[in-house]
Model the fold of this input.
Amino acid sequence: VTNSELLVVRANATHVDQLREIRLLALRDEPDAYGSTFEETSRYASAQWLQMASQWNYYLAFRGEEVVGMASGGRYDQFRDARWLYGMFVRSDVRGSGVAQQLVARVAQWARQEPVSTLGLHVTVSLPRARAFYQRLGFVDTGRPAPMDRDKRLSLQMMTTDLSTNERI
Ligand SMILES: CC(C)(COP(=O)(O)OP(=O)(O)OC[C@H]1O[C@@H](n2cnc3c(N)ncnc32)[C@H](O)[C@@H]1OP(=O)(O)O)[C@@H](O)C(=O)NCCC(=O)NCCS
Done:
């Protein structure tokens, strides 16, 4: 897979089916990575998918017609001067392609326009690939790992980056 075949777009109302497909795949493929579950998400009504695609700030990665990745940007209540990266996923056969970095860069571009200078995220500590990826992009551990609300057996590390000096995203 080369970068030229991969395209990142901001989701809109026309992407309902693709958003559902990639989100459910992510929850099935890497359940420990997310605050919601496949079980609850698979019961969402179509109106909810439409709202997510059209009003939430989702970015989708495509290889041709196929959706292969996602990320979204939003707020995090406990850190109001920052914006937060959520829902990061790239299909396993497209990992290592650079498209994950493109997705984060789109969320960073949005956050800079908000405008804020901090982008943060939570990553499950048992996912070394995701942690290595975020470190490479300039995110640093902030505070100590804490249990995930949904499942206290999982531990989340907060990571942040200063967008005013980060030249990688
Ligand atoms: C996290 C994710 C989006 C990153 O995308 P990606 O295409 O895999 O990322 P990259 O290949 O560019 O970078 C991953 C890095 O981890 C390294 N890596 C791979 N496997 C690893 C492992 N088991 N342990 C440590 N590092 C590992 C890679 O070598 C690479 O580092 P490098 O570029 O310095 O060599 C993708 O792996 C994914 O969707 N994972 C499942 C869902 C997930 O964990 N999401 C995060 C939610 S917070």
